[in-house]
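Hey all, quick one. A colleague (J.T.) asked me to put the adenosine-5'-diphosphate job into the tracker so the inputs and the structure tokens live in one place instead of scattered across chat threads. No bug as far as I know, just bookkeeping. Sequence used:
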Amino acid sequence: MSQVWNIFKRELASYFATPLAFVFIVAFLFATGVFTFYIGDFFRAGRADLQAFFMFHPWLYLFLIPAISMRLWAEERKSGTLEILLTLPIPIWASVLGKFLAAWAFAGLALILTFPIWISVNLLGDPDNGVIIASYVGSFLLAGGYLAIGAAISAMTSNQVIAFVVSVVVCFLFMASGLPLVLDAVSGWAPQFVINTVASFSFLSHFQSIQKGVIDLRDLVFFAALIGFWLFVNTVLIEQRKAG
Amino acid sequence: MPQPLIDINGLAKTFGPIKAVAGVSFSVDKGEVLGFLGPNGAGKSTTMKMITGYLAPSAGSVFVSGYDVARDPIGAQGEMGYLAEGAPAYGEMTPHQFLNFVAAVRGFKGVEKERAVAIAVDRTQLAQVLHQSIDTLSKGFKRRVGIAQAILHDPPVLIMDEPTDGLDPNQKFAVRRLIASMAKDKAIIISTHILEEVDAVCSRAIIIDRGAIVADGTPGELAARSRYQDAVTVEVNSTDAQGARKALKALPGVNDMLDISLDGDMRGGGAVLTLFPEPGQRLIEKVSALVTERGWKVRSLVAESGRLEDVFRACTTADAGNGGAGQ
Ligand SMILES: Nc1ncnc2c1ncn2[C@@H]1O[C@H](COP(=O)(O)OP(=O)(O)O)[C@@H](O)[C@H]1O
Ligand SMILES: [Mg+2]
């Protein structure tokens, strides 16, 4: 476990060693602002809640999270530092977990920095802060799900651009499987349980259910299982790479 | 019988159709510095990557301090320091941060950690660049960061892939001296294609070619296989050249003669004749006696010793595999 911590610290520090962290956080805050105020019509809605703000997170993350995760392994493969990482006495799972947690903490930091919006709604009205907290938790879990997918995909290539594009596509599939667009396409011919299964894999349905203000155990289990599964895939991919 | 620190048996690695390493066996004991020689693409780096657990072998086994690298890579890696080819390092970190990270991973804490880092920094003379990002360092310093990282935990086994590649002569000298200073209580493997390095630091050398061992012995033993071992080179002037050619060639014990004629404008003409002995023959006494007897004007008379370079060329192919050192 101490190796997870060592990896975590090194990774997290590496975000801040370059302007990357700054650029990302600014982009994130800017994009959430644009979505919330212009597209989400935050003011005219006349409601004191953050629904407009959270509604766009799945879409925002679709591009911003792969931008974080793309470098996780691809960069190490490219620069040759993977050879250092894998010849130090660190179990591969510990590297996988440490890197993931660092990226997740970083995404969490960006999310926390949106707090002025929260303060604003409290000044403007009387929002249900329980719902808002639940939504933040949901958004954080959502980011974790995207990150776990992106990290595993980053482990397959030494090209960050490829890692980014493939991650966006795969994350989109996971998100969109709950959209009417996809469900309608399936519902014409597939039996109900297939439709339910497809829908149950969707980030969107789980995120939306958390956004209502109740953190259901099923939603937690969903995200935990999803993250666990992709981290396992990540570990296997790195292990496989040894075979050459 | 105690097990050698590094024990390798039938090690092989294939990449698709490429046989990078084709069944290599050897062992290295404490106190030995093994020079791993071979042309580009011979399989040196691939072998080292398998020893350090970065690549899984297609066949064969590696034991390091008794740990099976395939079964217990973490155990084995704890016993090893590794300088990978090109000394990769996290470029955005400073040497200080990087070495502290490695020290933490190696299990050092607090004062111990500071001490381990300080010693490694001192031995590799990194003090002046300690807080500068590794990306901005010169090649020589980058290499030293890689070496510092490898020796930080004073490991019983040290694997270094071309530790002096790309360094200037002073830096090469410093690295060789460092390796020599650690030799006594470690098992060290260094790969190189610089043959003088072998004489300078290695107690033993293995030459590999196309993934297989083609020679194994002390630098002296290997050099002795050279046809230059106990050969004699005489430089005679033009008046004596013709006679000397004939007489020397006919000398008993001479197996072959290399005859380089010098033009008139080169040192006033004449010839440089190198006489190669038949196995076990010594020629120098016979040649010098003949020179005195005939009264030849000799510009130089040299008793040759074996040349590693010659052995290297004789037992390796010009361009092994596809010659790539690529990843
Ligand atoms: N990852 C790889 N994939 C395919 N071929 C490789 C790989 N690594 C090395 N090789 C090939 O294996 C052979 C040995 O390479 P290497 O061990 O790097 O040689 P050396 O270090 O002696 O120069 C070369 O032909 C090289 O092209
Ligand atoms: Mg090499």
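Adding what we noticed when we looked at it: Chain A has one domain: 2-243. Residues 2-243 of chain A form one domain.
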